[in-house]
Structures are given as structure tokens and as C-alpha cells.
Amino acid sequence: MDNTPFSIPLTMSIGFGLLLIPAATKSLRRMWAFLSVLLLSIVMWFSTNLSIQQINRSLTYQYLWSWTINNNFLLEFGHLIDPLTSIMSILITTVAIMVFIYSDNYMSHDQGYLRFFAHMSFFSASMLGLVTSSNLIQIYIFWELVGICSYFLIGFWFTRPVVASACQKAFVTNRIGDFGLLLGILGFYWITGSFEFRDLFQIANTLIHNNGVNSLFATLCAFCLFVGAVAKSAQFPLHVWLPDAMEGPTPISALIHAATMVAAGILLVARLLPLFIVIPYIMNFICLIGTLTELLGATLALAQRDIKRSLAYSTMSQLGYIMLALGIGSYRAALFHLITHAYSKAFLFLGSGSIIHSMEPIVGYSPEKSQNMVLMGGLTK
């Protein structure tokens, strides 16, 4: 139970080591990929073990330590291990292991091999920290770390103007959602006086049922929290960054923009579902956004000529289905579809990457050009 969080700083240390001393590790770079896979395998084993324990005993583990600012303010940090955490940990680690193994050969020709695995390791650690967070402050910290890792990975080939534009677009769009998330966190702290999930749910439910808080203000705060999920999970109208994010290497698309990062918004809504259920109109609004997103994503996917952009819009549509399921309170159906979609879409991205693998390092590469070559059977450089 307590060993899972310790794997997070170990994975982060690998990423920082590759960033700080790339020359010393150049001759041993494949060893770092092996070590990353090994650490992720250890985390996957602990996650699986915890999941089995929870199935057999229905247990929830929470460990907290206090960080006191003054006598009137108490901030606690720790980790929360419940069924949602176990499911997401298994999902993140299994997909990440497959992507890391695939990337070892896919990126072997690239001069930025070490930088690639540094950012990927840092991203995996940030996602594991996000899913094990026990309060809204930790959620926000790891939320921002996931965002900055996405910026680095989308802009991996930053010398290309189109790639630089895509990573900046993703960064700015997600900052809109992050600002809304911050306002929602501060608003609910003002209402409840707590960042912890259990206290937050209990106090908010009591106040709302007893008319102890203005319902309009509570709805506004919940809307701000949901804006963060809208941006991270590419929901309408903050979906514009996801198709352009396909300019990054294909393994990044498989890991971040199909299986894990876009699932962070779903995780946030699922984690805060006991809070959203008791707030008027917010569940209806989640249903509306999910419906618009699924219809828009499916329609736009039909008009794409590039295979990666088509998969990106398909991802957007499927996330809309998951958000709709959460909006109607179907928690288990949403998580089931999230798992099946993550694995299937990751395999689709990796499969498409095998087709256009030889074209991505070409100077002057464009997704439209590569897809036209694929359609015409021109797979030679």
C-alpha cells in the first residue's frame, strides 16, 4: 500500500537525471528506458494487488500528513487509494509500459531520445500523482504538472513552426480550464473550509440540503470545476487543441491524447461526482456538454484526411460519451467505457505510427502529406 507513492519520485528522478546529464547517459540511454519500464511495472504490480484487495474486502486506504500554515488553516497532503485510484493506476501503467517499449525502437533514430524519455517519465509520474491525490490542492498541483509535460511532449519537434504553434495552442487553451479549476477550488474552500474530499462532500451536502449556502454560488463554483475538466478532456468548446496536438510523435499521441491526459478530466468529474449530484443543474450541464462534444467530434472525424487527426476527433467524441454517462450518474458505465476506449485508441495510434514511422523524421513533413502518401500506397521516403 505505502510503496506505490514512493515509485513516483523514483520515476521523476529518472526524468530529471536525463534532463540534467544527457551526455553522461548517451551511451547507456536504452538502460534508462528499461529502468522506466521496470519502475512502471512495479507500480502496476502494486496497483493490481490493491485492486484485488479492494474487490475482496472493499477497502479504502488514506494516508495524510499535516502541513500547518497557522492556527486557522490546516493543509494535509497524502494519498488516497480507492477503487477509482486502482483502476486509473492500472490503466496508466499498462498503457505507459506498452508505449515505452514501442518508443524505444520508434525514437531510436531521434537525437532527442533522452529528452523524450525524460518527459515521458515525468508525465507518467505526474499522472500517478494526480490519481492518488487526496485533496483538491494536490489535484491542482499534479494537474499543472501534467499540463506542462503535455506542452513539452506536443512540442517535442519544436523546430517545426507548425509543432511550436500546436504546443502553444494546447498550453493556452488548457490555461483557461486551469484558471476555472482554481476558482472552483477556492470557491468550495470558502463554502466548506476544507480541501479534503470526504469533508468537502459531507459539508457541502449538508449546507445545500439545509439551504446553508446560496445555490447560485455553489452552482457557479461547480461550473468552474467542470471547466477544468472540459479543457483537459477536450470537450466543447475547449476542444480545439486536441487535433493540433497530433503534431507530436505518435507514441505521445497514444499515451497522452488517447489514454491518460485526456482521461484526467474524466477522473476529476468522477472524483467529484458526489458533489456534483447534489448541486442543481450542473449534472444537466455535464450531459449537454457531453452530447455536443460527441456529435461534433464524430462529425468532424468524417471530414479528416489525416489518420491521426481522424483518431483525435474520434477520441473527442468518445470522451463526450463518457462525460454524458457521468452526467446521467452512470459511474460504472463511464469508467468501463473509459478503460475500453483507452486501450483500443492507444493501439490504434501505435498501429498508425507503424505506417508513417519512416515519414515523421523527414524535414518538411506534414501530416496531410504523409496521409496522402499512405492512401496512395507511397510508403517510401
Automatic annotation (TrEMBL):
<keyword id="KW-0150">Chloroplast</keyword>
<keyword id="KW-0813">Transport</keyword>
<feature type="transmembrane region" description="Helical">
    <location>
        <begin position="80"/>
        <end position="101"/>
    </location>
</feature>
<feature type="transmembrane region" description="Helical">
    <location>
        <begin position="319"/>
        <end position="340"/>
    </location>
</feature>
<feature type="domain" description="NADH-Ubiquinone oxidoreductase (complex I) chain 5 N-terminal">
    <location>
        <begin position="67"/>
        <end position="117"/>
    </location>
</feature>
<keyword id="KW-0520">NAD</keyword>
<keyword id="KW-0472">Membrane</keyword>
<dbReference type="GO" id="GO:0015990">
    <property type="term" value="P:electron transport coupled proton transport"/>
</dbReference>
<protein>
    <submittedName>
        <fullName>NADH dehydrogenase subunit</fullName>
    </submittedName>
</protein>
<dbReference type="InterPro" id="IPR003945">
    <property type="entry name" value="NU5C-like"/>
</dbReference>
<dbReference type="InterPro" id="IPR001750">
    <property type="entry name" value="ND/Mrp_TM"/>
</dbReference>
<feature type="transmembrane region" description="Helical">
    <location>
        <begin position="6"/>
        <end position="25"/>
    </location>
</feature>
<dbReference type="GO" id="GO:0016020">
    <property type="term" value="C:membrane"/>
</dbReference>
<dbReference type="GO" id="GO:0009507">
    <property type="term" value="C:chloroplast"/>
</dbReference>
<keyword id="KW-0934">Plastid</keyword>
<feature type="transmembrane region" description="Helical">
    <location>
        <begin position="212"/>
        <end position="231"/>
    </location>
</feature>
<feature type="transmembrane region" description="Helical">
    <location>
        <begin position="113"/>
        <end position="131"/>
    </location>
</feature>
<dbReference type="GO" id="GO:0003954">
    <property type="term" value="F:NADH dehydrogenase activity"/>
</dbReference>
<feature type="transmembrane region" description="Helical">
    <location>
        <begin position="171"/>
        <end position="192"/>
    </location>
</feature>
<dbReference type="InterPro" id="IPR018393">
    <property type="entry name" value="NADHpl_OxRdtase_5_subgr"/>
</dbReference>
<feature type="transmembrane region" description="Helical">
    <location>
        <begin position="252"/>
        <end position="273"/>
    </location>
</feature>
<feature type="transmembrane region" description="Helical">
    <location>
        <begin position="279"/>
        <end position="303"/>
    </location>
</feature>
<feature type="transmembrane region" description="Helical">
    <location>
        <begin position="137"/>
        <end position="159"/>
    </location>
</feature>
<dbReference type="InterPro" id="IPR001516">
    <property type="entry name" value="Proton_antipo_N"/>
</dbReference>
<feature type="transmembrane region" description="Helical">
    <location>
        <begin position="32"/>
        <end position="52"/>
    </location>
</feature>
<feature type="domain" description="NADH:quinone oxidoreductase/Mrp antiporter transmembrane">
    <location>
        <begin position="133"/>
        <end position="380"/>
    </location>
</feature>
<keyword id="KW-0812">Transmembrane</keyword>
<keyword id="KW-1278">Translocase</keyword>
<dbReference type="Pfam" id="PF00662">
    <property type="entry name" value="Proton_antipo_N"/>
</dbReference>
<keyword id="KW-1133">Transmembrane helix</keyword>
<dbReference type="GO" id="GO:0008137">
    <property type="term" value="F:NADH dehydrogenase (ubiquinone) activity"/>
</dbReference>
<dbReference type="Pfam" id="PF00361">
    <property type="entry name" value="Proton_antipo_M"/>
</dbReference>
<dbReference type="GO" id="GO:0042773">
    <property type="term" value="P:ATP synthesis coupled electron transport"/>
</dbReference>
<comment type="similarity">
    <text>Belongs to the complex I subunit 5 family.</text>
</comment>
